Amino acid sequence: MPTCPLCASTETPHFYHDSRRVYHRCACCDLIFVPAEQHLGPEAEKAVYDRHENSPDDPGYRRFLSRLYGPLCKRLAPGARGLDFGAGPGPTLSVMFEEAGHPMAIFDPFYAPDVAVLERRYDFVTATEVAEHLFAPGQEFERLSGLLKPGGWLGLMTKRVTTRESFESWHYILDPTHVCFFSEASFEWLANHLEMHVEFPASDVVLMQKKSR
């Protein structure tokens, strides 16, 4: 059985398959994932992202992001500094936070690959529609947790797995760049592993707070 990319367990039996891919489910952290040999290569992956047409000038996209922006903004001190990780080709959430007085850095491996921003510490880090794309989510969330100051917030947006029946007909698995699918139990495992507190303000929003020392 393949190793779970979140918790490194090898208890990952076959969960489901369709005409394109196989999906395994981890018995430890409940992550459902596509094995590495079925991931897209970098060029094919970027070609999918290049078709995204997100923009801060799009009020509909702003409304979508407000599902995370609203609850997270309420928890931040004035002037809190943030990083938008996986900002994509049309960074927008960072613009929304800057408009509210929060200085922002952005990082994206394809569109804003300045690794210098990953050497700083932040009051909050956001990753919207990113978790489902991560090839190595365990490593990436360790890194994001390390970028947070004590008491800092990690704000995520990703749709969550509920039932097997809904998974089999779920539009989310049709995107070839989506390779990891989290349930609420997956995020509870992650929060415990990272020693963070976790909240679920909406069906596709997760807030995790690093413990203060």
UniProtKB/TrEMBL annotation:
Keywords: Methyltransferase, Transferase. GO terms for molecular function: methyltransferase activity. Pfam families: Methyltransf_23. The keyword Cell division does not apply. InterPro entries: SAM-dependent_MTases_sf (IPR029063). GO terms for biological process: methylation. This is Methyltransferase. It comes from Billgrantia endophytica.
